[in-house]
Amino acid sequence: MHKTPLLDQLESGPYPSFVKDLKRLAAKKPQVNDLLGQLERSYKEKITHWKHGGIVGVLGYGSGIIGRYSDLPDEFPGLEHFHTMRINHPSGWFYTTQAIREVCDIWDQYGSGILNMHGATGDLVLLGTTTDNLEPCFQALAHKGWDIGGSGSAMRSPSCCVGPARCEWAMFDTLEACYECTQHFQFDLHRPSFPYKYKLKFSGCPNDCVAAVARADQSHIGVWRDDIKIDQSAVKAYDGGELKPRGGATPYAKLDVKADVVDLCPTGCMSWDGKTLKIDNKNCNHCMHCINMMPQALKPGSERGVTILMGSHAPILEGAQMSWVIVPFMEVEPPFDNIKELTERIIEWWAENGKNRERVGELILRLGMRTFLEAVGLPPVPQSVIRPRANPFFYWKQEDFDAEAAGKKYYTTK
Amino acid sequence: MHKTPLLDQLESGPYPSFVKDLKRLAAKKPQVNDLLGQLERSYKEKITHWKHGGIVGVLGYGSGIIGRYSDLPDEFPGLEHFHTMRINHPSGWFYTTQAIREVCDIWDQYGSGILNMHGATGDLVLLGTTTDNLEPCFQALAHKGWDIGGSGSAMRSPSCCVGPARCEWAMFDTLEACYECTQHFQFDLHRPSFPYKYKLKFSGCPNDCVAAVARADQSHIGVWRDDIKIDQSAVKAYDGGELKPRGGATPYAKLDVKADVVDLCPTGCMSWDGKTLKIDNKNCNHCMHCINMMPQALKPGSERGVTILMGSHAPILEGAQMSWVIVPFMEVEPPFDNIKELTERIIEWWAENGKNRERVGELILRLGMRTFLEAVGLPPVPQSVIRPRANPFFYWKQEDFDAEAAGKKYYTTK
Amino acid sequence: MALAKAELVEYLYKMVEAAQGKKQLKAMDLQKAVLKEHPDQDKNMIKMAIKELIDSGRCVYTYFGGSFIEIPHVEGAAKH
Amino acid sequence: MAERITDIGPPHYGKFLSPVIKENYGKWVSHEIIEPGILKHVAESGAEIYSVRVASPRILTTLQARDICEVADKYCGGYLRFTSRHNFELLVSDKAKLEPLKAELAKRGMPKGGTGHSITNIVHTQGWIHCHTPAIDASGVVKSVMDDLFEYFGSHRLPAQVRISLACCLNMCGAVHCSDIAILGVHRTPPKVNHDRLRHLCEIPTTISACPTGAIRPHPDKSLKSVTVNEERCMYCGNCYTMCPAMPLFDPKKGGVALLVGGKVSNAKSPPMFSRLAVPWIPNNPPRWPEVVQTIRKILIKYAEGANKYERVAEWIERIGWEKFFEVCDIPFTYQHIDDYKWAYDTYRTSMHFKF
Amino acid sequence: MAERITDIGPPHYGKFLSPVIKENYGKWVSHEIIEPGILKHVAESGAEIYSVRVASPRILTTLQARDICEVADKYCGGYLRFTSRHNFELLVSDKAKLEPLKAELAKRGMPKGGTGHSITNIVHTQGWIHCHTPAIDASGVVKSVMDDLFEYFGSHRLPAQVRISLACCLNMCGAVHCSDIAILGVHRTPPKVNHDRLRHLCEIPTTISACPTGAIRPHPDKSLKSVTVNEERCMYCGNCYTMCPAMPLFDPKKGGVALLVGGKVSNAKSPPMFSRLAVPWIPNNPPRWPEVVQTIRKILIKYAEGANKYERVAEWIERIGWEKFFEVCDIPFTYQHIDDYKWAYDTYRTSMHFKF
Ligand code: SRM
Ligand code: SRM
Ligand code: SRM
Ligand code: SRM
Ligand code: SF4
Ligand code: SF4
Ligand code: SF4
Ligand code: SF4
Ligand code: SF4
Ligand code: SF4
Ligand code: SF4
Ligand code: SF4
Questions:
Q1: Which of A109, A143, A177 is the last residue of a domain?
Q2: Which residues of D touch C65 (CB under 8 A)?
């Protein structure tokens, strides 16, 4: 066993220790021992010891495998090849122990035995194997019903919040939408032919428990457009302290409906006279705050659908972006054909126009929202912007002049 | 007289009519008659009939005259030349009738007799004369104590709010500061040698009655940094309806101190229990709202100075900008040497580095705040930004590493 | 080596003359050009030399979006 | 002629201050607006000054200026000032003179107002009276709008101050970009290059670099010594025309008016804000621009109805949301409203915070 | 081997749902957090499911995974799930099993928590375990910070949820850019070009266009077939290294940790927000990164003391102002905090709304 005096210091402390866990496995798996050895070196030298590796993969696919080679293969021969396999996780990260054990069995056989449950995109990551093992490992998994996830310039493994499986606020079936889209885009998930990565995420409500707004090229977030349902007696129970604020999630014993709910409503559209809670629903912006605070008293309305937002990604190259509203409301139901079709149109436009390593959000910014919206057949809507433009530098097209000639007016006529 | 059926329609209505006024003069001055004639043509054709003019001026100066020629000189011979002279206005636009009459006399002699009281930058604009008349008109005015204002790539005529002359909120002497700076930069006002225009404006308090934040490359706004002075009995008088809200400026009979003042304070730093108004002054952001509402009860503190903000201009080329905070607080007093010196340092840096037609704010954005601040000798302060950067793309210089080696730390050590 | 005031004025004039019709020069272009050839030239003297050139009427300031220094000529837009 | 005088700068304002103002300079303690258009300022000493604010079309002939002087001599000892929004103020130190002054102003058709919760004078620019780049006239539009909104000039009826400004082209002379309501002249055609004139009048590199969107390129036919414009990339700012008169971009039919709303300058409550596009184009209809007048009135009325006490237009819109602004004002939302210039991203709605 | 299988996609989640969940799918009516780490969801039918959330270091060996399965078999009929922040949840349908399960978790050193007003798991990345561009390790920093803040994992003591994330380089894998507290590995040296390797490994145009700031140019010596870096313009993003391995930018001394704070994702009350630079550099001190741990604790404590009820870190800072944040947290403000990237202008303070 390699000596790891620095890493050993991470064995203590109350939070579960990955070092302790890896050490257990190192006793059986020489490559895990080498991993600890190399990691110790990194801790000492404050530098990574991994090299690029971009070519390995399984037959027919171009995604899902991240090649990796140690730059110290002589010292740590177990790390000469140390690729990861991204396995497409099931919607909502639900498992049976049987399924997990099957994966473990295969991975013990073909790989290091190290997993990430899960990767930041959502995949079940199998961490560390050799080039030779990739294909047999893949096929062993495939025979148990698993497939590889995305990487490179491809559709990435979509992900979703726990949604209707265990949450009262899911405004649409996030799990099925995620599953359906994943299946629909299988070809593009495995055969990278896009300008860059493309991520889909599905959150059932504006609480956005998969952070779709922050890290999906196409974010789907559930929303309602009618009235919040109010159980007035439950509201009173909150105000009276019989029900705990936020279902018990807080240090506070009692909810002050006025101070904690009404006054914190961002649109100021609520009122409470000690007896009746009123909501001016036309001015509610679906922030979920009141519902979050009083889960037993308030429920989202019943006219439900998704908002589609586009463009988020991490900071490379233009600086990080969050997704912005493209379609404020879309009714959806399995098999989610309207989502699939819109996605196809968007991807086609992006694939056609995007430069290498240009995310769809960056392309929209480069070519302008109008070009994008027209290309994918969507109308301009004020929900897309927090505020209209402040600069006077706007464009006109011949079609606008034609429309004017046909009577179109931009000003009020009433 | 030219027929002006369209313009004639602007003679009616309750607001003072420039057409009516011009017609009076047209009876005496043929060029004014021509001006109405050409204007009528523009009203009919919906197009301007003025051409560029870039060479005319008075001897030795390169600013203050806007050359203009009609493109219909045969029809409107009085407009063949029709240049404007920008006369530098007195601080705060104060006049005696004698002074105005002297200007009128000269302008009746050498020009069209049309004035703008005033131009958007603040100058007293004499509108319409010929090339030949420029120099004699200038000298006639000079002998009455007037000088020409700015135009072109030069220092522009600075302007200021009425300030201490008639406003209780002036945190510094805006009129004298404006006068002093105007005098100090006479050379640069008349001899355009900057990359582009440079505007100075002075507002006595954050109400900013000369819109300095919106349209001055260097904006000076008065501010206090100690405590707002409260006359509690006057507060009660407002709450009781004895004093009218906002000094009577509103349709409202009575001020609700809680709803109209305390609840609208943007920082939430006020409280009112019906008897005592309290302000947590450390958290006040000098918005002036409470003072505006109760001018008889509240006064700015007595530790007073100016905030210097930089960079505002209209939308050409990068889109409009507002000025941003560079120096949060500077104590000033006549003759305002510290303002003059800082301005000189800034202009020198800009003149050296700016491209043709690049405003100072655009240059700061192009080269970065650090480059600017270091060049003019100012420290980085959090007041400059509403929020720190969100992107992780920041630079380091050798001097930073040297400072670290000497013990500098960026994190908390307490 | 720095130029004497009178030489400097001529130097500037020649520059403007040479550029006429080709490139519109700004005061700062002149200053930078002088300093390139004569790094020790006093900036204020350059400023004053330009003033002299203008005060003498041999050059004028013109304005086309930005302010330039040119040899006086008849304005294209003026009808004479 | 006498000795030539230069570089004296403006006269010192001290020469023009009335005795009361001079004596109480920097010592004012408070003010009141005793009625629309009349301010009363009180000094530590107890001294008072009354300022009567009067509407001005800003264009004044020497005749009109002399008329104003006549009034000022009669009631103010010859002391007056102009405001940052081009009204003038008669500075009365003798309270007794207020009533006769009001009567005289009424007689002369010089309306007082513009204080407090009113619509004060419209800051504006040259238009067809003097500029070479305007898409619209300035003074005529101002007159038309102010005539229509006149009831708000001499009263304190609005929830807060409403500041309207006008600029006749994208250069936006004045603080138009931070106004409650901004009226903006816009061109909508790319410049037409006159190659012959360009060769003589313009420097090619300067002309090319004038274009913010990089739409101007050297003409492929080198012998022309001219430029071409990529019309797709041109957003009609006219900056090239400013640099080079051989590139006019006027078109009587396509030019027109855009309205921007929700800007402000003061720091009161909310920070200064930019005006933002409300209506991208209204036809240019002299002499009274009825569509412009009507749309502004609609916006104003909806604001007056919808705003809370003390709420500026900007604050009202930010509270209800821009999507609601378009709805209540019955203004269609178009592609033009969506920013696609340099900082566009920061205007996009990266949240679920919207209303249906 | 059997027939080759491809493109089957992931298994349908339906296969993995416990009976209670399957029956009440889409029919949940409400939830409670009966104690930190234990959620109770109730369905229309009255059915209940208890979810016990357990901390995970995310790196799991198959040994550990099997241990977890053992527990799930014993108390949950073999049903479990993982969360979007890499905790796992044991899905208990029989309430009686909760207490024994808690005891077993305690015994096994598997801490429950991460619900409600807690600090839940730190979303993080590969670090020195598997990536080629990290400036810091991931798992080790996470372990160090979570050990220190452990009291907040299994409790509901904070004014609101606090989400901490870590990314080991500027690629920022994970939603680090929208976290209450983001820990970010940063390089601080420009890449060193290995001309020999570059010639063989990299495409020059792609390498050049990889640079967001245009710092990379073709090498003036054409025969080298390589590039040079304008070090002044390099902000060490490592994007060139991603495209071209011949341009490493590692430096053990200069690399380190930046902290960004005040981001959020949910729309609750306030819209999603970016995290913003709090500390530009803290030395990279394995194995326990004491300065990072201490600074995060300081920020957290000040937040817990200063925030109103239900206020996220972002909301607290926006309310008091960033200038006050730096003051109360005793963090120096530096040039690095001032944005100078593409949308810098929108972060500048164009108002008088600041505090001294
Ligand atoms: C494994 C994983 C981190 C983890 O430990 O969980 C990961 C690892 C890598 N990411 Fe990532 N990214 C991972 C999720 C993300 C996410 C989060 C997400 O998808 O929700 C993001 C932010 C969202 C986004 O897509 O922008 C992310 C943003 C990036 C970026 C920057 C992209 C940008 O537009 O700014 C890069 C750089 C690149 O693509 O060259 C990148 C590149 C990489 C590479 C491939 C490094 C490279 O340049 O070649 C890393 C391989 C590490 C390794 O050795 O395995 N990774 N990466 C995550 C994928 C696991 C999985 O499939 O579940
Ligand atoms: C006369 C005046 C408008 C008025 O009717 O009051 C005016 C008139 C012109 N302005 Fe202006 N500007 C006038 C105040 C302003 C202001 C307001 C201010 O100074 O507070 C601004 C906005 C603030 C600013 O400086 O950005 C302003 C922003 C512009 C711009 C755009 C600058 C930018 O950075 O975006 C231009 C374009 C240019 O410089 O080429 C411009 C250019 C012009 C030119 C010189 C047209 C040109 O391109 O050659 C106009 C000459 C009109 C004429 O025929 O007389 N004018 N201009 C104002 C000057 C009178 C005075 O001296 O008092
Ligand atoms: C005379 C003048 C200054 C000058 O040097 O000429 C002036 C004078 C006063 N202003 Fe002003 N302001 C003047 C232009 C402005 C401007 C500039 C502009 O409109 O272009 C602003 C910024 C406008 C904006 O935010 O868009 C301005 C924003 C204010 C405010 C803040 C109002 C707000 O709530 O946003 C106050 C405070 C108040 O009214 O309570 C104020 C208050 C005042 C007071 C009460 C100050 C005082 O104690 O004497 C003066 C009388 C106000 C009134 O008429 O109701 N003054 N004031 C200007 C009159 C213009 C006019 O003819 O109508
Ligand atoms: C299990 C999980 C979804 C999943 O599919 O895995 C989940 C589950 C729930 N979330 Fe969440 N959230 C989960 C990640 C998130 C995330 C994503 C993240 O952190 O990366 C967010 C956005 C975080 C952010 O804003 O930065 C998130 C923002 C919320 C919110 C809004 C909180 C706020 O005030 O900002 C709520 C509402 C609430 O807590 O009252 C919420 C509410 C809930 C509820 C109460 C929903 C329900 O009725 O069942 C669930 C229990 C909350 C709890 O633990 O206190 N969930 N939740 C995720 C658990 C992660 C973990 O292991 O800790
Ligand atoms: S995003 Fe909404 S629906 Fe999905 S788990 Fe979170 S709270 Fe429930
Ligand atoms: S969801 Fe948000 S905006 Fe709507 S009523 Fe509740 S708190 Fe207000
Ligand atoms: S800016 Fe302030 S000091 Fe100046 S006039 Fe306006 S309110 Fe008075
Ligand atoms: S000046 Fe503004 S921030 Fe300060 S106490 Fe008054 S209202 Fe509040
Ligand atoms: S706004 Fe444009 S057209 Fe109007 S005066 Fe200014 S430069 Fe001329
Ligand atoms: S009008 Fe503006 S955008 Fe169009 S070509 Fe000229 S400078 Fe470019
Ligand atoms: S954040 Fe950077 S170093 Fe860390 S895993 Fe992602 S790409 Fe690799
Ligand atoms: S590290 Fe980034 S900024 Fe520096 S040269 Fe490489 S790509 Fe350019």
A1: A143
A2: 206, 210, 239, 242-243
